[in-house]
Design a protein that fits this description.
5 strands, globular, 144 residues
């Protein structure tokens, strides 16, 4: 999956690449050849950490959940980058409720559990940066 996402990210002017989600996929339009789309769900994406920092992450003050991914995708596009849906990369997006009725919000992406990235500072941001560094190492090793 990382090779699929990294290959798409390595193309010119691509800033954000998402994997297809299972068991429930978001239905949206994307170009069947280029993968370009207007927005992505942030359940399992690959993007340069520098771009995430430049855009200052998610706007959690305005969009706690639901809508933050669309807002972020549009800000990526406004910064001059393409947003890509990569259906050949597949992620299981765990969408369950706790016994108390809260969401169990996590995504399994290529065998690694990734944190829900709220807020942009603190441990979640450190995990995102660490994960991005690991993915950059994988991309470098595969010459992506």
């Amino acid at each position: 999956m990382l090779i699929e996402l990294g290959g798409a990210l390595a193309r010119a002017n691509v800033g954000l690449v998402e994997a297809r989600q299972l068991p429930i996929e978001h239905h949206k339009h994307y170009d069947q050849v280029t993968g370009e789309t207007s927005w992505v769900s942030m359940a399992c994406v690959l993007m340069p950490a520098a771009l995430f920092r430049e855009l200052r992450g998610f706007d959690a003050a305005t969009f706690f959940m639901y809508g933050d991914d669309v807002d972020f995708s549009w800000r990526v596009r406004l910064a001059g980058f393409k947003v890509i849906h990569q259906p050949s990369a597949v992620a299981f997006h765990d969408k369950r409720l706790t016994n108390e009725g809260g969401w169990v919000a996590s995504a399994r992406c290529s065998g690694a559990w990734l944190p829900n990235p709220y807020p942009m500072d603190g441990p979640a941001a450190e995990n995102i940066t660490a994960t991005a560094s690991q993915l950059q190492g994988i991309a470098a090793a595969h010459q992506l």
